[in-house]
Design a protein that fits this description.
5 helices, single chain, globular, alpha+beta, 6-stranded antiparallel sheet
Length: 206
Amino acid sequence: MKTPIIPTWNSVSLTTRMWLLLMISALASPVLADTKAAPEALKVEADDFYCMLDMTPVRGFYVDNLIEGKLEDTLKVANAEQGEYPPGSVVQLVPTEVMVKHPKGFNAATKDWEFFELSVSKDGSEIEKRGFVDVVNRFGGNCFACHIKAKPEFDLICETGHGCDPLPLPASVFTLLQKTDARCGGRYTPTQEEIEILKNLSAPRS
């Protein structure tokens, strides 16, 4: 019996080689697509949240970016009042509630925003709750349920005219909460009237 001749790569014609490479590429492409890694969440810890007065103010709220060197990217969108915030963006209205933007594609339901409920003191921050569609704040409101009402061009950011429900308190009270952030070392001394406002806000709710 004759020994079968096994062709080598060099003995195959150029045309055949091209067809073989195309077939291999076509077969491999779906596999590569299926195994593409999903975007990883940012590592967010309690120490990433600090005195609001050290963040950058924009129209009554404050912003930051957890990724070094990316604050200007966040500010560009915040100052424009519309557009998609970049990964790492931090948006905060009061000391105990924060939004953080994860890489694109991480959570489609919340447009990649994660919501945090914090407790704050002179010693820093502690994360009480965190998540995407199920975080409820101290007043019993679901964070996502409120922010999802924002018109698409505002990337879940609630401001006047953005489509969200009106805030339950006047702007002056939110400013007071920001200035008296417990993590800020007592930079601001509230008046007696303001102290009473803060007491009423912290009183247990039935």
